[in-house]
Write a structure and sequence with these properties.
519 residues, mainly beta, Immunoglobulin-like, 5 domains, 5-stranded mixed sheet, 40 strands, elongated
């Protein structure tokens, strides 16, 4: 019988242990408990769940409205924990936060409530009048309708959204353009059929002074104009900031807060940079910012000329301290190295190439490429003068001779070579060359040429053209004729035979005469 009180005590302890999983979270003297910080807020609030007096080194899982939102965290050596998570989209009202862990008496679940309140967020949060913004409502009542959005100005408020309906999680979204309003912060509020404006967490939009650029991109050294508005009246010492550095100072606004200034794109590597402004009475935080792109740029000096011209290539906006290749029509001519500002200078001699436009391209391993155009001169050289053989002259007594042709020299900055044609007919094409040449030689660097195969007896014609290193050709000379051999071969043989016969006859006559004399 003495053991009966002990059995009763053990039974009571077991009953208490069984009841623990369904007990609400509350501070117990010496027992585990949980607390929320904060206890209420809009969806997106960072919530911290704190627990104390739990068993040491045990895993803790946290559920929000039955959805697991945190796992894998353990209690400390003293049995405490502090676990944070973000409140997901959910409608206004109480939402269950449940902690699931293990204690010495078994698995327990402790729960408490987080109260969701409505609130607004806006994106972007600042900009000039006319900025298109998106406002999102969170934590409104489930499927709440009749929601209206208000934008506050110095003269009251303007409804910028009407008849908005929340979804099943109390969320909604709408967009509008910021109406005319003074520079500075302006409140946005909302209310619906179930949510009063004083219960809604406001959003704030900062109206900034406005700036604009006449160009959104440019190359180093290019002049850019900035215009400012909604600055303070007669604001002075206004400066333009490029990537945080003042590049123009001393600008003064007029009575309406308007001003204009120009700057040159600084010598820095290519990329996107923030451009803004500030004045003595208009802080940078109250001025909108813009993105300006610095583009790669190369300058050729000169950008036109002849073969052999020494071209200097200057590049801006490239990556700093990089080796770059300089190519002419995709053929690498030289290399250079950029400095700390991404600029470089190199030079090359224009190679022989056809007259007209040619691409000079700059590139390096990072893949950045820029190009410029070099124009090769298109002026042809003078027409040479034919010297020898002279017109209608005869070369050799008979056929099978190798005549030498000679003409005058012409000069050109791109250098000169010559083309020679020989034909048996004076017929030429529209371009002045022979229709049916029997010999055609190109690229002669001198002013004379001896044919390599003997020409048989006959009449021939010859012409010459000068061509410079840019492939500009002069006109062809007028055709000159010459004749190879004074007599045809058969006539020459006949003459020789006749001469031989005559000599023989003379010799016979002489012999007969001598015999007659001595007889």
């Amino acid at each position: 019988m003495k053991s009966l009180p002990r059995l009763v005590i053990v039974l009571i302890i077991c009953l208490v242990a069984i009841a623990l999983p369904t007990m609400p979270a509350q501070a117990q003297c010496g027992g585990p408990f949980i607390e929320l910080s904060p206890g209420s807020g809009v969806p997106g609030t960072r919530l911290i769940v704190e627990g104390q007096h739990f068993d040491a080194g045990k895993y803790v899982d946290i559920y929000y409205d039955g959805t697991l939102v945190s796992e894998g965290n353990k209690t400390s050596a003293s049995g405490d924990f502090a676990i944070a998570f973000t409140i997901p989209e959910s409608c206004r009202g109480d939402h269950k936060v449940l902690v699931d862990t293990v204690t010495s008496v078994g698995t327990i679940e402790m729960e408490t409530q987080f109260y969701v309140t409505p609130g607004l967020t806006i994106s972007p949060a600042k900009g000039p009048v006319g900025t298109n913004v998106t406002v999102t409502g969170h934590g409104f009542a489930k499927n709440e309708d009749g929601i209206e959005l208000m934008y506050y100005t110095d003269d009251g408020y303007e409804r910028v959204g009407r008849n908005i309906i929340a979804d099943a999680k109390g969320s909604w979204e709408t967009s509008f353009q910021i109406p005319t309003s003074t520079r500075g912060e302006h409140k946005l509020d909302a209310q619906g059929t179930a949510s009063q404006s004083y219960n809604v967490k406001d959003a704030t939009f900062r109206v900034t002074a406005e700036i604009s650029l006449d160009k959104s991109s440019g190359s180093v050294g290019e002049s850019i104009t900035m215009t400012g508005s909604r600055f303070s009246a007669y604001d002075k010492n206004i400066q333009i900031l490029f990537d945080g550095e003042a590049i123009v100072t001393g600008i003064t606004a007029d009575s309406q807060g308007h001003w204009e200034g120009s700057f040159e794109v600084p010598e820095i590597p290519t990329g996107n940079y923030t451009v803004t402004a500030e004045g003595e009475w208009t802080p940078e935080a109250d001025v909108s910012s813009l993105i300006f792109e610095i583009k790669l740029d190369i300058v050729l000096s000169p950008d036109e000329g002849h073969v052999g011209t020494n071209v200097t290539v200057t590049g801006y906006g490239f990556a700093a301290s990089k080796n770059v290749s300089i190519t002419y029509d995709e053929n690498q001519e030289t290399t250079a190295t950029t400095d700390g500002q991404g600029s470089f200078e190199g030079s090359f001699l224009v190679p022989q190439s056809q007259h007209g436009e040619h691409q000079v391209t700059i590139g390096y391993s990072a893949g950045n490429v820029a190009s410029a155009t070099f124009t090769l001169e298109s002026v042809p050289p003078d027409i040479p003068q034919l010297i020898s053989p002279s017109d209608r002259s005869r070369v050799g007594l008979k056929g099978s001779v190798t005549p030498t042709f000679e003409w005058s020299a012409v000069s050109d900055d791109s250098g000169v070579s010559y083309n020679l044609q020989i034909a048996t007919s004076a017929n030429v094409t529209a371009t002045g060359e022979f229709a049916d040449p029997i010999i055609s030689v190109t690229g002669l660097v001198g002013t004379n040429y001896t044919v390599t195969e003997a020409l048989p007896h006959g009449t021939y014609y010859w012409i010459v053209q000068a061509v410079d290193g840019a492939e500009n050709g002069s006109g062809w000379t007028a055709a000159r004729s010459f004749r190879v051999g004074s007599l045809p071969l058969w006539a020459f043989i006949a003459i020789i035979v006749a001469i031989v016969v005559l000599i023989v006859a003379l010799i016979r006559a002489l012999v007969r005469r001598r015999r007659y004399y001595y007889d």
